[in-house]
Amino acid sequence: MEYSNKNFPELKNDRLLRAALGKSVDKVPVWVMRQAGRYLPEFQEVRAKHDFFTVCRTPELACEVTLQPLRRYEHLDASIIFSDILVIPQALGMTVEMHPGVGPVFPKPLQTPSEIDGLQPEGAVSRLDYVGKAITLTRHKIDGKVPLIGFTGAPFTLFGYMLEGGGSKTMSKTKEWLEKYPKDVHRLLCLLTNVIIDYVVMQVESGAQLLQVFESSADHLSREQFTEFSIPYLKDIRSGVRAKLTEKSLEQVPMTIFAKGAGHSLDIQAQLGYETIGLDWTVDPTEARKIVGENITLQGNLDPQDLYKTPEEIKTLTTEMVKKFGKHRYIANLGHGITPQTPLESMTVFTETVHEAI
Ligand SMILES: Cc1c2[nH]c(c1CCC(=O)O)Cc1[nH]c(c(CCC(=O)O)c1C)Cc1[nH]c(c(CCC(=O)O)c1C)Cc1[nH]c(c(C)c1CCC(=O)O)C2
C-alpha cells in the first residue's frame, strides 16, 4: 500500500525539535548516531537475510530497522531514517558495494578530473525516491512517538569517498586533488551541493522533521582547508534548503551540522545558519558554548568508546557531560556513531541517565 505524505500521526514527543529551536524542554532529548546498527541483534538478523543497500532501497526493511532501537530503548527521543550517505554517489551513476567487515567499496572510484563529467546529476534525486518512500512509511508507522530525522553526507565527505574508493586513513588522493586540481574539486563540490539540496528537500517533503548533514571526513582538514573546501558548501546547503522549502510552501525544519574533527572551527560553523552544531568528543562543552554563543543548540558528545565501560562509569560520565552542557539548547548524543560490539545495556544506561541527569 502507498502511504501519503499528508496526515501524519500527531507528534507526541517534541523534545528534540524544541531543543533544536531553543525552546524549553522538560528533559534533555537524547538519540544516538547509528542507533539502528550492528550492535543490535535484531538488526543483524535483518542483515543476515538482506544486503545492506537492499535494506536501504526497500522501504519496509528500512522502516523496520529504523524502528528497532525505539522498541528496545524507551528513552530515545528521535529516530533517524535508515540509509547511508553513499546513496548519493550511487544515484550519480557510481557503483558502491558494502563489504562486511570492510565497509563501503567503490570498484571504480574517480581517477581523473575529466570523469566528473561522466556523473549524472540530472534525475539523481528521482533515483533516490526510495528514501522518500521509506521516510513517509516510517512517519506513519512511528505513530508520532518521536520525530524522524533525515540526513545527507556533506559534499567534501562524499567527494572523499568517491575518490578514495572507500574509507581511507590518510585521504592521500583527496589531498593530492585539493593541491593539484582545486578548480575541478570545486566544480564537483558544487555539483554535489546542488544534488544534496534537492535531495534533503525531497526528504522533508516526504516527512523528515529535522535534517542532519554529516561532514564526517572534516577531521582530515586543517582550518584553512575546511574554510575553502567545506564551509562554503555547508553554507549554501543551509540557505538553499531554506529557500527551496519556502518556494515549495513546505514548513521549515531545523538543521544540524556535524563536522567531525572540526572543533577548531566552531566560530565559523556558528555563522552558517544551522540551528544545531554536532560535536565530537574532543571538544569541551563549556568551551564550545563560549565560542558559539547562546543562540545555537549543541549536540553530542560522549566518546562512543565510553559505552564499553561499566554501567556505573557510564552513568558518571554521562551525568557530568549533561551537567556541563546544561538543559538549554542541548541534545545529548555520542561524539560519533555507536560501534558494533557495544553492550546492549550501555544504551539503556546512557539514554536513561540523560533523562535523569538534570
Ligand atoms: C561516513 C558515513 C557513512 N555512512 C554514514 C556516514 C556518516 C556518519 C559517520 O561518520 O559515521 C551515515 C549513516 N550510515 C548509516 C546510518 C543510519 C542511520 C543511523 O544512524 O542509525 C547513517 C546516518 C547506516 C550504516 N552504514 C553502514 C552500516 C554498517 C554496515 C552493515 O550493516 O554491514 C550501517 C548500519 C556502513 C558504512 N557506511 C559508511 C561507512 C564508512 C560504513 C562502514 C563502517 C561502519 O560500518 O561503521 C559511510
TrEMBL record:
User: Its domain of life?
Assistant: Eukaryota
Q: Which gene is transcribed and translated to give this protein?
A: LOC114245027
Q: Which reaction does it catalyse?
A: uroporphyrinogen III + 4 H(+) = coproporphyrinogen III + 4 CO2
Protein's UniProt name: Uroporphyrinogen decarboxylase
What broad taxonomic lineage does this protein's source fall under?
Answer: Eukaryota, Metazoa, Ecdysozoa, Arthropoda, Hexapoda
- Under Enzyme Commission nomenclature, its number is 4.1.1.37
Where does the record place the Uroporphyrinogen decarboxylase (URO-D) domain?
Answer: 29-38, 149-165
InterPro entries, alphabetized: UROD/MetE-like_sf, Uroporphyrinogen_deCO2ase_HemE, Uroporphyrinogen_deCOase
Question: What's the chief localization of this chain?
Answer: cytoplasm
Provide the protein's localization: Cytoplasm, Cytosol
- GO CC terms, sorted: cytosol
Write out the pathway annotation from the protein's UniProt entry. Porphyrin-containing compound metabolism; protoporphyrin-IX biosynthesis; coproporphyrinogen-III from 5-aminolevulinate: step 4/4
Q: Which CDD domains match?
A: URO-D
Identify the species of origin.
Bombyx mandarina
Assembly with partners or alone: Homodimer.
